[in-house]
Each structure stands twice: as C-alpha cells, then as structure tokens.
Amino acid sequence: MPKVHNWQIGREMAYPYKAAFPRRQFAFVFNTNRCIACQSCTMACKSTWTFNKGQEQMWWANVETKPYGGYPQFWDVKILDLLEKANAGNQRWSGKPSADSKRPYGQFDGQTIFEAQKMLTPDSARVLGYLPSDEEWNSPNIYEDNPVGKKGVRYEFDKTGVELPEHKTWFFYLARICNHCSYPACLAACPRQAIYKRPEDGIVLIDQKECRGYRKCVEACPYKKSMYRGNTRVSEKCIACYPRVEGKDPETKGQPMETRCMTACIGQIRMQGLVKMNRDGAWAEDRYHPLYYLVHVAKVALPLYPQFGTEPNGYYIPPRWVPRDYLRQMFGPGVDEAIERYANPDRELLAVLQLFRRSNRIISRYQIKEGPKVYEATLRGKKITLYNDTVIAYGQDGKEIFRTTVEEPLHVRPAQHANSI
Questions:
Q1: Cis check: omega of the bond before 2, within 30 degrees of 0
Q2: 100-103, long-range: CB within 8 Å, 24+ apart, which pairs?
Q3: Each residue of 289-308: pLDDT tens digit?
Q4: Please, which contacts does 410-413 make with residues 24 or more away whose CB atoms are closer than 8 Å?
Q5: Cα 376 from Cα 113, distance rounded (Å)
Q6: Cis peptide before 290 (omega within 30 of 0)
Q7: Which 8-state DSSP code applies to residue 293?
C-alpha cells in the first residue's frame, strides 16, 4: 500500500490509494456539552433524504447515548475490539499534545484499520471491518438516557457521583453524521471505485450507477455511516446536503448554507464550514476561520476515534463531566487540555462559541470587537472575567452575515402575555 501522512495520528500510515486532497474540505464541530438529544437533526435529515421505501432503517444523522447506545448497536465497541485482537496490547499513543501541526496530539503507535486488516481478514480485504447484523440496525435510540453507575454494581446510581469535574454516574449524547474523512474507509474498500471525494469540497459520495451493492463500504466504514438499501440493492450515505453547501439550493440565494441537520439544531451545538487545504493534506493557516480556530488554535475540538486512521473531518468538544479514560479512547490524548480550555475559556474562545447556530449561512471569517467588562468572580480557585464583546461573522463573499454579543440580551414580556391562552 502507498504511504500517506495522517496529521491526527502524527505519522505516516498505509492507505490503498495515493494521497489526494480537495481545495477546501467540508468539516464541522459539535459541542457535546450542549446536546439535549432532541433529535431535531435526526428528523430534519430523515424528512429530507431518507423517507422513501427501503430507507426505513437509514439514519444518516443520529444522536446516540453513550456509553451504551449506538447505531448500529455496538459499532464502536466492535471495531475497537477487532483492532485490539489484531494488535493486542499495542494500541497506544506516545508523546504529548504539542504545537507541532504534523502531530498535535502526539503519535499513535498502534495499527489503523488499514494496517490491521491483514491480521484478521482475507488478503483481498483492504480495510479491517465487519458487517452489522440486521438486529443491530433495528433501534436507533437504543439505551437512550441510560447512565453508567458504580463499577460492578448494576441498576444503581453512584451515591456520590454528582460532582464535577467528573461524574461517577454519567452519560452523554453523541450526535453523528458521516465524517467525510480525508482517507475514507468506504472509498478504500469499494471494488467498483464507485465512491469518490469531490475535489471542490471533499464531500464523499457514492456513484449509484457504479455501485453493485457489495456492501464493502458498509463493512469497512468504522463509523457505519454507509448504509445498504435492499430494494434498490445499492448503498447510500450522507451527502452533506451538497446543494446547500454549493449555494444552489433555492433557500441559499447563491451563498453557501449549512446542512439540514445543522440548521435544525435547537441546542446550538453545531458549526459547519469549508476549510482551506494545503497540498500535503494539512489545514492551511486561516487564523480567523472559526473551525480553524476551534481545532488548531484553541484546540477544544477533537476528532472522533482518530486511531481508526481515516482522518475524520468531524470534530467534537468533549463533555466535561465524563471520566477521562473513556473520553481519551474516543477522542485521543488531547482531551484533558481541551476540557480545561473549554471549562475556563479565554476572551476569544468565549466570543467564538457565540457563533454556533446564529445563522444558517456558512461562516468563513469572524472578527471580535471588544466590549466592556460585565462580570468578575472566582470559581474553583480561578479568576473569571467576562467581557461583553461583539463577534461578527462574515460569509464567503466577505459580507457580514450577523453580529452577536457574548452577553445575550434579556427580553421581559409585558404582563398581559403571561396568560395568553
């Protein structure tokens, strides 16, 4: 296999094809601290793309409750178990998070799904994976709101488990869509070469005229976001609502717009955009692009299971109440620093966090105008100062989309509306 550089694992790795990168890459950040599992994103996607016959079990966007939930069930546990069997005791990271853009989280010394495949699969297989059973596709909301309690004790909450920074009884919601990876496992595994990344935005699509329904993409994708449709006998997946991203949807008025799942988000957990790419696959420096800032400057947003090796373009701000060991195996070694920065945000981070879900338009740049000091206190031994700064969002055309302040305005409704029923 050719060698490609994967900056998320800090080293070169094997991949079936030579590296090729788009001019800009579709990417997103989800703030798990805000998700309320309202499923508005899930239903927005379902009602737009997967409401037809044969798509009943297709949920391109879903929200699952960790640690027990998953769609398909056990998707992450099963692939982690396969990797451990292929490379027992050696799936580890070395080094520490640093400012090195080629290895910001250290180096993953274990094997990726492209490197471990020869240990457990036939020589013809390009990617380590598995096909979920029909039963595992049955329940998108299985174990919703189920917490984990005291270790070894079933059906009982930990009686001292309600204090930060970590809860002993806990769960959290993980919103998921296709990560439109830089090294897609679905693309690598397809014997028909029916899957491709668009050069203009890196969105991963399936050419359904070429697909023959072998389900190699379903087997290979570690996130299980490629799905088989039985009545047409081809696979389908999230298309990142590309007419909206292109600005060709009638609602967009010619300007890039966020996807349906993003715009429906009530909890304001989502931000999506297009980041500039260097020829070597790294993100080009774009200091005041909000996604670049969150991932590469503030470093509060981390990739989901970077050790799989696909270099996903979906990033998550980890939940700050969850045991760190669990989060490290899910988001990599940068978890502790990311949670510390999010829990104690500096002035710029606090302003950028206000950009989430203030508009349906894709934000290409932000600017901060300093405002007055409005609050000062000491919390958990640390001094906190809050400034009511104004953050301004600009679109691809360089024009202002909106502006908002850190301190949200409070509106008191007149008394006559109190009992309007």
A1: no
A2: 100/10, 101/7, 101/282, 101/296, 102/5, 102/7, 102/10, 102/282, 103/7, 103/9, 103/10, 103/11
A3: 999 999 999 999 999 999 99
A4: none
A5: 49
A6: no
A7: I
Residue with tokens 């930060």: 164
**pLDDT at 419 (0 to 100):** 62
Question: What angle in degrees, to the nearest 10, is found between the helix axes of 335-343 and 324-331?
Answer: 110
Three-state DSSP at 336 gives helix
CA distance 116 to 234: 27
CA atoms within 13 A on the CB side of 76: 19
238-295 residue pLDDT tens: 999 999 999 998 887 889 999 999 999 999 999 999 999 999 999 999 999 999 999 9
| Full set of structural domains in the chain with CATH | 3-346 (3.30.70.20), 349-405 (no CATH)
Q: How far is CA 327 from CA 61, 162, 312, 337, 340, in A?
A: 21, 18, 17, 12, 13
Mean pLDDT score of the chain, rounded to an integer? 94
